[in-house]
Write a structure and sequence with these properties.
about 375 residues; alpha/beta; TIM Barrel; 7-stranded parallel beta sheet; two-stranded parallel sheet; globular
Length: about 375
């Protein structure tokens, strides 16, 4: 009997030891990849062997799920997803950033702090946090932000610079590091006209350039939009696909800003017809290789981040496998897909079965990782 009790006691001790070991394994959080060298946002477009090596090191630490996740950016806030949905996406490791859409300065600050705590716990890469913080929209997109003039009401380039500094100060305080601004479209379109510096057409390039320069000086990505041009179409891409008929008259706005070093360009849900070179064959530009890869990347030489306009807009929602098509066209970030997890699965499925597409996704993920490292998000 004594021998049986000793055996039971030994078994119990063994069971407790195993249980403790198991608990240790479960509770140990995976570590986020880190890089040993500090970089700045200005390093992103430069040749830099140390930055190249850091990107490759971080990329090599990711599995396929995490690689594809870098390309997906849903929105949170009014007109976006509930915070609980974003929390689940973080746990599922299917997103690489979040658009802060319609909320308060305090609320967004709190959410970003919590999202990054979760990313650290799950071993995810830190996120890019974006906002439509255009001068004409920021005060209703981020309630509690400093009041600024609308873009079409500004009278001087100094006002533009001061505005960019004011907006960037708020964004940095919140934790937003990616501004979908400025609008570089011409002014005739009612939907985007008041959001552009185009009240005087000659001001569009220098004033947009000043806004970009001041924004990126503050460590925030600036975005020229809406490529290839939304100002000379009559309709609203939020409601339906719009069309450029013939010549692309607004693409002239982009080469000077690319040469200056704008880090991001947003592509619009606008089709192109009656243009032999850039016809999109009924698809929005976001899903057209002719526009994104051939024109923007190859002809214009743009090497920054290419983000789609919101993928829940009327101009693209009817396109089957729109997320996959946008990435295949050359976009790096799929913004506001109707279902982020479905978009991730859609891209991942093609990633596993199409070597050319896989290389494209890998290149996009590396660009996003490079941006995150250049921003200092992963420095030891």
């Amino acid at each position: 009997m004594k021998r049986i009790l000793l055996s039971l006691s030994a078994a119990m001790l063994l069971f407790q030891a195993c249980a403790q070991s198991s608990e240790t394994k479960v509770s140990k959080a995976p570590e986020q990849p880190k890089v040993p060298t500090s970089f700045t946002l200005s390093d992103f477009l430069k040749e830099n062997e140390n930055l190249d090596a850091a990107v490759e090191s971080v990329f090599a630490s990711l599995d396929d799920t995490a690689i594809v996740a870098q390309l997906i950016m849903p929105a949170v806030g009014r007109l976006g997803q509930e915070k609980s949905t974003i929390d689940q996406h973080i746990k599922d490791r299917v997103i690489g950033g979040v658009l802060m859409l319609n909320g308060t300065k305090e609320g967004f600050t709190s959410w970003i702090t919590d999202f990054e705590k979760q990313n650290k716990a799950y071993g995810n890469l830190p996120f890019l946090y974006s906002a439509d913080a255009e001068p004409s929209l920021v005060n209703r997109k981020i309630m509690g932000s400093a009041v600024v003039k609308k873009a079409n009401e500004m009278k001087s380039i100094d006002e533009v610079r001061n505005c960019a500094q004011t907006i960037s100060k708020d964004l940095n305080a919140i934790g937003i590091n990616y501004n979908f601004s400025p609008v570089v479209d011409m002014s005739p379109n009612a939907t985007v006209g008041f959001r552009s510096f185009g009240a005087v057409p000659a001001n569009i390039i220098p004033w947009s350039g000043a806004f970009i320069e001041e924004t990126q000086k503050q460590g925030i990505i600036a975005t020229a939009k809406h490529f290839p041009g939304h100002g000379l179409v009559s309709g609203d891409t939020h409601k339906a696909l719009q069309v450029i008929d013939g010549e692309l008259k607004e693409i002239q706005n982009y080469p000077p800003l690319i040469a200056q070093g704008v880090l991001s360009i947003m592509v619009a849900h606008i089709a192109v017809q009656n243009n032999n070179k850039y016809n999109t064959n009924g698809l929005p530009s976001t899903c057209s290789k002719a526009i994104v890869t051939d024109l923007l990347k190859k002809e214009m030489g743009f090497k920054g981040l290419i983000v789609t306009d919101a993928m829940n807009m009327g101009g693209v929602v009817a396109v089957p496998e729109a997320a996959y098509k946008a990435v295949a066209a050359g976009c790096d970030i799929v913004l506001m897909p109707l279902d982020a997890k479905k978009a991730h699965s859609e891209i991942l499925a093609h990633y596993h079965h199409d070597a050319v597409f896989k290389a494209q996704v890998d290149a996009a993920a590396k660009k996003i990782i490079r941006m995150k490292i250049a921003m200092g998000l992963m420095t030891n």
